[in-house]
Amino acid sequence: MQVVGYETGVDGPPALLIARDGAVSAESLARGTKLTYSLGERHCAGVIDDGAHTPCPAADAPYCDRHTSRWPCARCTGECSLPLESCREEHAIYLAAFAPETFKVGVTRSWRLDTRLREQGADRAAHLRTVADGRVARQIEAEIATEIGDRVRVPTKVRGLHESVDEAAWTDLLADFEPIETFDFDYGVDLADRPVSETLASGTVRGSQGRVLLLDNGGSTYAVDMRDLVGYDLESGESDRNLQSSLGAFG
Question: Is the dihedral of CA 91, 92, 98, 101 positive or negative?
């Protein structure tokens, strides 16, 4: 069996998508779930089509060139001809905050705003503007990004999971805008110390924030980027490799 995808759990618990002999099932990662897998070889996760999985033996992971989806809007700055039907939908421009004081600007279709923010694991957010289409939204985003930035890497998010957003820094940032609406998210992860970044699939689920899965294992809490699990073959039984322990494990 192989991890072929994941769900961040915006409308329910997160899940790993597991392929077994062509069939795909969602393994719930609800809080308290016990995972007992070790990681085997990693290779391309293949493709899922209408619920069925077609494997791929290519060594590149999580996807080989053949199975890598290239989203045309990924680096768009509004100099386009609205290539996708979704580009013509109403879009929202937003600011997202990640504890303690990392900020980014982004855009999404208006009806997906709350979902998109939760998918990213934002701690705070502000809806700045609503515009007619994605091209206008990308143009505004590109302008704001010269000052604020438009990307936050997962390791940066993990480093602040046990902290709160710097209230003064967030307030100062919003002072330059007139937000339509603000958001304050609580993922219930309740961490006293920074979790240890690791790639594993064994332990008890503590919670999740965006695509970061938190697992308790051996007295430590580990932060797992679920995308880093995609492509791995899973074997039953907990991993026996040595893991770095958090400082909290020695308290």
Answer: positive
